[in-house]
Specification:
Layout lengths: L1 E7 L2 E8 L2 E5 L1 E6 L8 H6 L6 E4 H6 L1 H10 L1 H5 L5 E4 L2 H7 L6 H10 L4 E3 L11 H22 L5 E3 L8 H13 L5 E3 L3 H5 L3 H15 L5 E3 L8 H6 L4 E4 L1 H7 L2 E4 L2 E4 L11 H4 L3 H6 L2 H29 L2 H8 L4 H4 L1 H7 L1 H5 L10 E2 L9 H12 L9 E5 L12 H7 L5 E6 L2 E4 L11 E2 L7 H10 L5 E3 L3 H6 L10 H13 L4 H4 L5 E5 L5 E6 L2 E6 L6 E3 L1 H10 L6 E4 L1 H8 L4 E2 L3 E4 L8 E5 L5 E7 L3 H6 L4 E8 L3
Parallel strand pairs: 4-5, 4-11, 5-6, 7-8, 9-10, 10-11, 14-18, 15-16, 15-19, 24-27
Antiparallel strand pairs: 1-2, 2-3, 12-13, 16-17, 20-21, 21-22, 22-23, 24-26, 25-29, 27-28, 28-29
Amino acid sequence: MFEIKKRDGLARIGEFTTPSGTVETPAIMPVINPNFELISTEKLKEEFDIQVLITNSYIIYQSEELKEEALEEGIHSMLDFSGPIMTDSGTFQSHVYGDVVVEPEEILSFQKKIGSDISTILDEFTEPDETELDAEKKMEKTVQRAKKAKEEFAGKEGHTAFPIQGSVYPHLRERCGELMKELDGDFYPIGGVVPLMEDYKFSELVKVIVSSKKGLGAKGPVHLFGAGHPMIYSLAVLLGCDLFDSSSYAKYAKRGDLMYPEGTKNLSDLEHLGCECPVCTSHTTEELKDLSEDKREELLAEHNLWISRKEMEKVKQSIVEGTLWELVERRVRGHPELLKTLKVLDDRYEYLEKFEPRSRKRALFDTGSETYWRPAIKRIQDWIMSEYEPPADGPTILFEMDQDKKPYNRHLREELGSMEDHELNYLVETPIGPVPLEMDEIYPVAQSIFSSDKMPEKLLTRYKERKDIDNMIRWEGKKTLDSLSQPHQEGISFDEMKIKTTADYQFCKEAGKVLTDGTLEFVKNNKGRIKNVMLDGEHILSVRHYDGFFTLKKPGAQILWAKLSSPKMRIEVTDESAKFNSEGKNVFAKFVTEMSGELRPGDEAIVVTQDDEIAATARVFLTKEEVQAFKRGLAARTREGFET
């Protein structure tokens, strides 16, 4: 069973339960060669805190001595490791040597007999240069083997891995994922990708991962076969990969290579190690070079494993902080081919956006021009260009301000007050493009730091074209004020603009109108910032200080529930769950019967019964796609219940 505990977009910290224990993901699985122990399994567990191992069942099966030992004692006793162990089937040996002679049923049955926690079917490795027809045939053969394995081993202890194949053809990868998802498995490796990584074809790798994930949906965990270099961990985790097997730590050590998150360096080229792992802090480069070949190989392997483990810890912490995109943008600069992957992600914005939260608790940091491709920025740009409707019929006043004036409207209170009785719209130039001034306190407009204040001029031109604006006035102080026409008595207040536009962006298009239909009052702090919003005397919204968005209060939820048609903003649950949710208890995935596909992680939502009776307000944790995939775990955190 797999359960998501923390997340940042598609990236997730999860718990994967096996017969031999629970693994916290994302995690690395060191490859253990049953014929040669470079680092003892005891050391891996005690010093490196390794939770899960992977070994090759075909190598064991081919050796009479190892085979007998594994069958008699079990794989855990044989490897002297009590934690979860995954076994591969020999597919990669077939790819490398072409000499695997074993029946698919035979090797899978063997893995089950020796007590593997995660057994792998013998899939058909699809090479990057396969013809589409050959790749499709191999993919279909892999799916047929998975179906047979599902039938034969249903109900047996342990998990069975169903690899996703399809070469570099996105539609084949996606189709394979869909077919494997239908089998309702519980472990999904993405196979056939080692040649892509060896040839630095990282853009193709990203396309393969995304296509496979689209087919699988949110099923997991997802294992990226053969991904053992720390330079790709952050990128692969960003795309929703959970487990990584690593023989690279040993292979690279054998040829004298040290792995780093930025790339690989050979010991012969180094005068300084530049590393704080136990190996590097206790040896100089010269001391390592003077060691015997075997001892040097062992220590370099330990360095590589330390670096891999440390990088995965950084990835996890970035998920907790909500800063994984920034880590990825730094890491991909380690190689030009890695940097190109960010453009591939930009082309897949519509898929990534579904899992992207509307805000994060930490500010968005600009790391380079590629930052503008992030879903968090593209989403608000797209919404402003396509969905935003200027609230007034009059001219648009354009402000140009420095970033250190964020939020911009607080430095314009006097000016806004003098213009409030005019029919005006307000726009401010920002590094992410033109932004309606009433949106300047929300994420990521206020909660971001860019290296330049300059706004691309093409974005302003596009905005004017999209909104059909022919009367835009650049603010020049009193001169601009004097040029305006006579004031109107019914001009919309800036505070009301802020509520309507923010609600439309955060909740849905109609929300702003229904939440301002009445007498509005505002509770402000001593700096003039809105804290609470009252409608006809009822507290409907509170403003979150860290991102400028709203927390939905019960009266506000009731208004939205009454005015918005189902399934907008709704999480529908069983009657049994609704009773507990109305008492303030959280919403769990297995009790969700329907959910709006527009809800994103972190969104405010309304929990309802199957008869659409309101039960609670909640904050979304899983998307609709994820709820449908998981049988356990949190779906939404309840804020307030409507006790019945």
